[in-house]
Specification:
Layout (H helix, E strand, L loop, with lengths): L1 H47 L9 H9 L3 H11 L31 H4 L4 E4 L1 H8 L8 E3 L5 H4 L3 H6 L4 E5 L11 H18 L4 E5 L6 H6 L5 H18 L2 E3 L3 H5 L14 H15 L1
Parallel strand pairs: 1-2, 1-3, 3-4, 4-5
């Protein structure tokens, strides 16, 4: 009997140890799984912005915006202000907010929310970066991933409701498919402009030049080559003159920069580009 009790006691002790080890193992596996998922989400957010020119990728970009607050973003921007970093090999790392400093003499950050108070920016994902980086109030940026002139027609009423003093429009990267001619492009642009004029007659309209892309981008999208972009920009100049609105060659800020301001995809831009862009607009349209 005594031997049996010892065996039972020993067995219960063994079961308790095994149960404890199983619990520890379960907790460790759960923690490891969460770590892997978190890292995956972090990588996905880092890649989503620069790679999200197509509408199919808009969900991942939305997740990245929901998972980071404006206060967090402002803090990261302030902490990185003045740090010079090498351009990334791949797409934008949204958490590190990679940038190049001392790009030009006109690269100092200003109070853009005050400078462009009452103005509206309209465009695709490039313009959307103004709100993403918290440089312009999101309520004053009407821009979306994969946005085109045709899609922007549905936003004219929203633009008019804001009663903007100035409207800065930037389209082209998503409009310029291989089949679209510069003539058809300006016809769509002209229709969009006429609709804005009709519903917001007191607003001053600025058409911004289509921005150049890198050689890497041209390899994957040959229709975005420099000759074709120049052709479309020349057509925009003529259209702006015809409609008696302003044409702004914002591509000039890239020529003045001493570093490549493109992201890894060759189409989107780093944070520092936005500073140069807004400074250029402030100096030439205000």
């Amino acid at each position: 009997m005594r031997a049996q009790r010892k065996r039972r006691k020993k067995a219960r002790k063994s079961i308790a140890i095994i149960s404890m080890l199983s619990l520890v193992l379960f907790i460790s596996i759960t923690a490891l799984k969460k770590l892997v998922i978190d890292n995956f989400d972090h990588d996905k957010k880092s890649l989503s912005y620069a790679n999200s020119i197509d509408d199919k990728k808009s969900d991942s970009y939305a997740e990245s915006k929901l998972n980071i607050t404006k206060d967090d973003l402002k803090k990261m921007v302030d902490e990185n202000e003045g740090n010079e970093e090498a351009p990334p090999d791949e797409a934008r790392d949204n958490n590190d907010k990679q940038r190049d400093t001392k790009v030009t003499a006109n690269s100092a950050k200003r109070d853009y929310k005050s400078i462009f108070n009452g103005d509206v920016f309209v465009g695709d994902s490039i313009s959307d970066g103004l709100a993403y980086y918290d440089l312009i109030d999101s309520s004053n940026v009407i821009a979306k991933l994969g946005f085109t002139l045709l899609k922007a027609e549905n936003e004219v009423d929203k633009i008019a409701l804001l009663k903007p003093k100035n409207i800065y429009i930037l389209f082209g990267a998503n409009d310029m498919d291989a089949k679209l001619s510069s003539e058809m492009f300006t016809q769509r642009y002209e229709k969009f402009i006429k609709n804005i004029k009709a519903k917001s007659p007191n607003s001053k309209i600025y058409i911004q030049s289509i921005l150049p892309v890198s050689d890497k981008a041209v390899k994957s999208k040959p229709y975005l080559n420099s000759a074709r972009i120049n052709e479309f920009n020349n057509a925009l100049k003529k259209m702006a003159k015809k409609e008696d609105i302003n044409y702004v060659n914002i591509a000039s800020v890239l020529k003045d920069a001493n570093v490549d301001l493109h992201e890894g995809d060759g189409i989107h831009f780093k944070y520092q580009f936005y500073i140069l862009w807004l400074n250029y607009l402030a100096d030439n349209t205000k």
